[in-house]
């Protein structure tokens, strides 16, 4: 298979063929046996990292490469590492626009001759970012709270008079608070960019007394599971985790905001050949299929198919469910305007 060929190429480049096959997750540097080589992956943790460990990392272990993880994937820490000249991370899980905006600064340019790109959407590939996961931001709500009158749109999410209750949003500008606020205020999906900050924050102000911010996916799951919040601008994977633990949740597929994540190679990474091997394992058919069979996300390779699990599928958005209302994020705009958007968001949150 092509993944095996790419892994073999990366291993040959590193001089690692024929080395030990023992995986030692959570360690860095050479293994105790002195044989296996290590690659350090900074990612989001949680169920997604568990799938990676059971599939992509296991395949690497069979070829003599161990994977060490650190989470969360904090960009400020990454920046300090790169500026210090000795980064300890090799592969970094990122947004596509961060990979575009920080290409050559925080991230190495990808040598695509070392990547198996068959099955990938070429429009999602950038100079420094390789697509690894497809998903959508969706509105998730507590069915017990709203009963026979559930929310059906972003306008309902931002209308606490019509739909009383607490709201949850991740405390990052990237997590669609501004975009969904603009959609709720009537901005057409194809006219979102450039973002009208003032209009977005005027809409967000409507739910400010009812709003709770979260910093991690684990907090998002806990808030949904405990009933701490009644509606969430959610990552579907974290909402699904809450539902598995008993939360009675509904999902609104009206105007889901499509996004994808990428993996990057850290500027000055110490184990770049092993980093390429890890990326190939992450985007390969086996790992991608395992992701969609375990978590409500979409594969980045056409070699994997959508899940057949009905419980998972209940949280998976697609254009059929969205009835043609899917909203596409402008990653080029975000790459150019991320710093300003972050400053505006932080000022509003702290204001």
TrEMBL record:
Principal location class: periplasm
Signal peptide, first to last residue: 1-26
Key words, A-Z: Periplasm, Signal, Transport
Superkingdom as given in the UniProt entry: Bacteria
InterPro entries linked to this entry: SBP
One Gene Ontology term, aspect cellular component: outer membrane-bounded periplasmic space
CDD domains: PBP2_polyamine_RpCGA009
UniProt-annotated location(s): Periplasm
GO molecular function: thiamine binding; thiamine pyrophosphate binding
GO biological process: thiamine transport
Name of the protein: ABC transporter
């Amino acid at each position: 298979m092509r993944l095996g060929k790419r892994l073999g190429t990366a291993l040959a480049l590193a001089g690692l063929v024929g080395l030990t096959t023992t995986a030692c997750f959570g360690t860095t540097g050479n293994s105790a046996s002195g044989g296996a080589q290590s690659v350090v992956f900074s990612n989001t943790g949680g169920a997604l990292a568990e799938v990676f460990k059971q599939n992509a990392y296991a395949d690497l272990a069979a070829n003599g490469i161990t994977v060490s993880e650190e989470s969360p994937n904090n960009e400020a820490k990454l920046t300090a590492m790169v500026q210090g000249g000795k980064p300890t991370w090799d592969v970094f899980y990122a947004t596509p626009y961060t990979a575009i905006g920080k290409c050559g600064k925080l991230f190495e340019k990808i040598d695509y001759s070392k990547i198996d790109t068959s099955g990938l959407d070429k429009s999602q590939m950038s100079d420094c970012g390789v697509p690894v996961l497809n998903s959508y931001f969706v509105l998730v709500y507590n069915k017990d709270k709203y009963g026979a009158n559930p929310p059906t749109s972003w306008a309902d999410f931002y209308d606490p008079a019509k739909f009383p209750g607490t709201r949850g949003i991740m405390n990052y500008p990237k997590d669609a608070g501004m975009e969904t606020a603009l959609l709720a205020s009537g901005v057409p999906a194809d006219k979102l960019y450039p973002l009208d900050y003032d209009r977005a924050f005027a809409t967000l102000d409507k739910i400010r007394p009812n709003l709770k911010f979260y910093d991690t996916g684990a907090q998002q799951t806990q808030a949904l599971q405990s009933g701490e919040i009644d509606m969430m601008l959610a990552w579907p994977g974290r909402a699904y985790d809450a539902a598995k633990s008993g939360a009675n949740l509904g999902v609104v597929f009206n105007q889901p905001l499509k996004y994808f994540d990428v993996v990057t190679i850290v500027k000055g990474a110490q184990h770049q050949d092993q980093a390429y091997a890890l990326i190939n394992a992450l985007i390969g058919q086996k790992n991608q299929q395992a992701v969609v069979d375990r978590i409500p996300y979409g594969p980045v390779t056409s070699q994997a198919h959508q899940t057949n699990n009905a419980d998972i599928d209940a949280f998976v958005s697609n254009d059929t469910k969205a009835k043609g209302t899917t909203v596409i994020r402008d990653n080029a705009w975000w790459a150019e305007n991320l710093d300003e958007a972050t400053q505006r968001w932080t000022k509003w949150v702290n204001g």
